[in-house]
Amino acid sequence: QERLVVGRTCLWNSFEYAMAATVEVEAQHPSCEVTNGASALRCVVVDCGGVTNDDSGMNKSLRSYVAEEWAEQIPEVWKQVWRATRDNPDASEEAFWAQICEPLHLDRAAGREVDREIRERFRQPFQETLALLRHAKASGLVLGMISNHIRFWFDECANSSGLDDLMHPDLIVVSNEVACSKPSPRIFEVFLERLQRLHPDLLAKDCAFVDDKEENVAAAVTLGFQGVHYDARKAAPGDLQKALQAVGLVLTS
Length: 253
Known about the structure:
By secondary structure, this protein is an alpha/beta fold. Helix content is 47%, strand content 11%. Helix 12 links the parallel strand 6 and strand 7.
C-alpha cells in the first residue's frame, strides 16, 4: 500500500507532488497524512472568493473614483467597514455604502458605479473549479460552502456559479448571516451542525475544506477537516483536482 504523506508545504502552497508515486513531505500536522487507498472523501467544502468566484476588488475600484487627497485612506476604510459588515446580520446595503462613501468624500453616484463594477467581477466565476465541483457531485460527494461574505453581494456569486444546483442551501454558510466569520472555529461548527442534520453519518474528517487564505485552512484543519490551500487566480490548471485527490477525492468517469 502506497503511503502519501501530505504536509503543509505541499497542500498549502504549490501542490508540487507526483500523484502516481509515493511522495513524502515532512508532515506538519497529523491530519495532513494521507494513505493511498484509505477512506475516500465524502464531502468537499469550498470558499467563495478566490475559489469559485473572484474577490470584490474594492480597493482597485475605489481608487478610480476617490480624490487623490483621500486615496491613502481607502485600504483602512474598506478593511474597517468590511470587518464590521461581514459578521452583522442586520447590516444594510445603504448603511454599508454610507460608511464607505462618507470618510472617502465619495458621492453616492460614484459609489453606485463602484458597486456595479464589483458585481460584474462576482459574475465571472472560475469555471475550472465549478467543473470539478459538478464532477464531484456526480460522483456522489456532498458539497458545501463556507464564505466570509455579505448577502447582497454573495447572491451575485451564487447565481453566476449556480450554487443552488450544486449544494443544499443549508450547506451554504455566509458569515453575514450567521454572525461569525473565518478563521473563527464557530463558522465551521455551524457548517458541521447543519451537515449532521442532513447527513448524520458525516463528520469533519470526511470533509475537505478549500480556501485561498492559509489561516482559514489552518482553522478548518484544527477541527478535523482535510485542508487545501488553493487560489484559482494563481493556480495552474489541474492543481485543485490534484490537491483534492491527495486527500482522498475519488471521481467517477
